[in-house]
Design goal:
Strand order of the largest sheet: 2-5-1-6
Shape: elongated
Mean pLDDT: 84
Low-confidence stretches: 179-201
Radius of gyration: 32 Å
Distance between the termini: 16 Å
Helix content: 55-70%
Oligomer: single chain
Length: 802
């Protein structure tokens, strides 16, 4: 079968040699359509973007946003030694007013300047602003301070415990200003415009478009400009909140992608010229890479798929994988061409020699990456689909465009071999697997056992805040606000009685209040609840105000008609805060739990506690827990499940491929040992470097096994060829190392160098991904230069290769 396939590849190469221009024209016509869509590509860094549009967790979250608005807050933490001074309050008023008048897409702004001040005078309820009328002197400020101290509402919501920090909370519009009136998903696409970055996961259940990434970025940019003005005046302001974090991640991602691609191209360019010392051997692989990359990204744009945080590795991945195949071909071709001085026979020989192996390696790499295609996480699925597509496009161009370009080029043979030193090194290296077979096998076994043990010590983690480096401004701002205010993100509980005026019931309100107190008192090693806000707080405040502001009446009234009356009074008092905690039918209530930004894995116990308490408290009502924290937990849980599933699929599929390639079940199973050990070695490195098992490192297994297997295929395929020719393990290893070994060595160095460009990333998670992937590629090279030959020596002695 191998011989027949190699013969077909040889005939195809011969056809390309005689019709190079036709081949290039056909390729350009095929690629023109996807490449033409390239300008439409967009980015999405939102947490919702990690989920498929039919994910139940996302659907519940979108339903919540439809009912109560956007839960994601933009928060400004303002530090001052004397919050209750006339000077500071004037600055706060001006800052609040500037944000209110200048920032677009804002639904509501809350600060000490305009927060409600619920109070009663005789039988009248007032819910005016805390600083209305604005204080004129110290006595007025002292009176305001007294009111703040007498209230349960402000602490840890807008003012920290030691009163050295206050917050301004910005709630943005729920819906985009461009698709707000659309009645269906199709109309929303037409209204908002696909080029604005709208995708189906950004649609509400009513077909409206949620606030777009572009609008969110415009909003944050305006806030940042305003803040800078006040910071220049000496005001200490920290900006955070999940919209700000997501926007910062997007900014870092765009900068990093440009750096990665530029550096990777420079590295590939340098290595190719160093090895071949021919401009054709530099530019033609770059053309293969460029067209593969443009076709892949253009197809993403055509299909409406955005770049997300995990998929930012796709371009660099295609670059480094593409160059490997071209190096294998060019290495064999120029060695042969320099000797024979016949371009046609050299082309046919090089593609017959390595074309099948390259096809197999590309397929196994695509399988490794494609194992993510069915992932529960949308960007993982995108990565699986489009990285695999890029690899296969690269294979097509390597087998067609590359020989066509070489045919059209006026090449001259060279007497000297620029890579001669590598040839000598590989020839010397071939001795060791035969001479030290037992030592290599023993060391590999011990290393495998140690690595497996350390792998069990790794701790899973999902905290996008820690993707930023220490000292990064957004990370510092979030941690500072959390330390002082205990809450830059939130968990939302929606309790639905499914009955009109269901929450005008004192029994249910008392149960809601008891639940609030339980949750507010929760504390574990990782989470301390900052604030719990619900309808019960408004009812208690109102009851207290209507009883001469007497603290003993900060309770839920016992009579149902009294509750109804107080809620009606509050609603008619001029405050719109009621709509934030209960729907218009009084059937559905919202409880907001403000918590610090925490690792999703560290919040699992807290989430289980909330779910259990809420369900037990309201067994006959519909309880839904949603918000940013549940979304993060769901994202990582799906990532773990997807990774395990993809590892199984990739491992099984690649093992079957190896059996097919090597024509033997035993050899196929044995060949997987040099492929698995590098990945386990990567886990050992993670343990030594104290790296977390996060959403990026979870990707490495399937990505790495797809690439690590390439060298194994090249080695095993050619070892069998030469062993059948010579019947001698030593001679077969020498010949394999001298031909394929050189290309294996160079491609591994290029691949590792390409991924090491990630080390300059501004995000620590991307740095870890690059360093680990590069390390695994080098581990795979060592494994294929020592362990794989040692295993083949062993099986040859046992007579497994006829």
């Amino acid at each position: 079968m191998h011989t027949k396939l190699e013969h077909i590849i040889g005939k195809a190469t011969s056809f390309i040699y005689h019709h190079p221009k036709k081949v290039i024209l056909i390729l350009m016509l095929i690629l023109a359509f996807p490449i033409s869509h390239l300008p439409q590509i967009k980015m999405d860094t939102s947490t919702e973007g990690f989920m498929h549009q039919d994910d139940p967790v996302l659907l519940a979250y979108n339903k919540f946003r439809d009912a109560f608005g956007r839960d994601e807050m933009i928060v400004l933490g303002i530090k001052n030694e004397d919050i209750f001074s006339l000077k500071f309050l004037k600055q706060l008023k001006q800052l609040h007013t500037d944000i209110e008048t200048k920032v677009p897409y804002v639904y509501k702004i809350t600060s000490l300047y305009n927060v409600r001040n619920t109070r009663g005078e005789k039988d009248t309820l007032f819910t005016d602003d805390l600083l209305d009328p604005f204080p004129k002197n110290k006595a007025d400020v002292d009176a305001i301070k007294k009111r703040v101290h007498a209230s349960h509402f402000y602490k840890n919501l807008l003012l920290n415990q030691d009163e050295k920090m206050t917050m301004i909370v910005i709630q943005t519009d729920v819906y985009s200003h461009k698709g707000e009136n659309a009645l269906s998903t199709e109309e929303a696409f037409d209204e908002a415009g696909f080029l604005e970055g709208i995708e189906a996961s950004a649609m509400s259940s009513e077909g409206k478009v949620f606030l777009t990434d572009k609008e969110n970025n415009e909003l944050i940019a305006t806030v940042e400009d305003i803040i800078k003005t006040y910071q220049d005046k000496g005001l200490e302001i920290y900006l955070s909140g999940s919209p700000v974090i997501n926007n910062a991640l997007k900014t870092h991602m765009m900068i990093d992608m440009a750096k990665f691609m530029s550096l990777t191209f420079v590295i590939v360019f340098s290595f190719l010229y160093f090895i071949f010392r021919r401009w054709s051997a530099v530019f033609y692989p770059l053309l293969v890479i460029l067209f593969s990359l443009l076709t892949t990204v253009g197809t993403m744009a055509w299909m409406g798929v955005m770049f997300k945080i995990p998929t930012q590795i796709v371009p660099s991945l295609i670059i480094v994988v593409s160059v490997g195949a071209t190096i294998h071909i060019l290495s064999i071709f120029f060695d042969r061409f320099n000797q024979s001085k016949d371009k046609k026979t050299s082309l046919i020989y090089s593609f017959q020699h390595s074309g099948l192996a390259i096809a197999m390696t590309s397929i196994t790499t695509a399988i490794g990456l494609g194992s993510f295609a069915g992932s529960e996480l949308a960007p993982f699925a995108d990565l699986g689909i489009f990285a695999s597509l890029g690899v296969m496009v690269s294979l097509l161009l390597t087998l067609t465009l590359l020989p066509a370009l070489l045919t059209l080029t006026n090449l001259q043979p060279k007497e000297t071999n620029p890579a001669g030193n590598i040839d000598k090194f590989m020839k010397k290296l071939a001795v060791y697997p035969v001479k030290y077979t037992k030592h290599i096998l023993l060391f590999s076994t011990l290393f495998l056992l140690i690595s497996l043990f350390t792998a069990t010590q790794l701790v899973p983690s999902y905290n996008p805040l820690l993707w930023f480096k220490k000292g990064e401004v957004h990370r510092v701002a979030t941690q500072t606000i959390d330390q002082n205010m205990q809450g830059t993100t939130s968990v939302e509980i929606v309790i639905d009685t499914q009955k009109e005026n269901g929450w005008a019931d004192p029994t249910k309100l008392k149960a809601l209040d008891a639940l609030s107190k339980k949750i507010a008192s929760y504390k574990d090693s990782y989470i301390s609840v900052g604030k719990v806000v619900s309808l019960a707080d408004i009812v208690k405040e109102t009851n207290k105000a209507l009883h001469a502001n007497n603290e003993t009446f900060y309770t839920i009234p016992k009579e149902k008609n009294l509750v109804a009356q107080e809620l009606l009074l509050f609603e008619n008092s001029g405050s719109d805060d009621l709509e934030d905690v209960v729907d218009s039918q009084f059937s559905k209530v919202r409880m907001t739990i403000r918590v610090p930004w925490v690792d999703a894995m560290q919040a699992k116990d807290f989430m289980a506690f909330i779910q259990t308490q809420a369900t037990q408290t309201f067994p006959h009502q519909q309880v839904v827990v949603t918000g940013m924290v549940p979304l993060l937990i769901n994202t990582f849980s799906n990532a773990v499940y997807s990774a395990i599933k993809s590892y199984f699929i990739a491992g099984l599929a690649i093992t079957l491929m190896m059996m097919l390639i090597l024509g033997s079940m035993r050899l196929g199973l044995l060949s997987m040992i040099p492929n698995v050990i590098p990945i386990i070695a990567g886990l050992f490195l993670m343990y030594l470097a104290d790296m977390a098992l996060d959403i990026f490192t979870l990707l490495i297994g399937s990505v790495a096994i797809g690439m690590a297997v390439d060298d194994t295929i090249h080695f095993m395929h050619n070892f069998k060829r030469y062993y059948k020719a010579y019947g001698d393990s030593q001679k077969a290893i020498e010949e394999t190392f001298f031909t394929t070994g050189k290309a294996m060595f160079v491609t591994s160095i290029v691949l590792a160098s390409g991924f090491l460009t990630y080390a300059i990333s501004s995000m620590s998670s991307i740095q870890n991904f690059g360093i680990l992937t590069a390390s695994i590629i080098l581990f795979a090279l060592i494994s294929d230069l020592f362990l794989a030959p040692a295993l083949m020596v062993l099986v040859a002695k046992r007579g497994w290769i006829k």
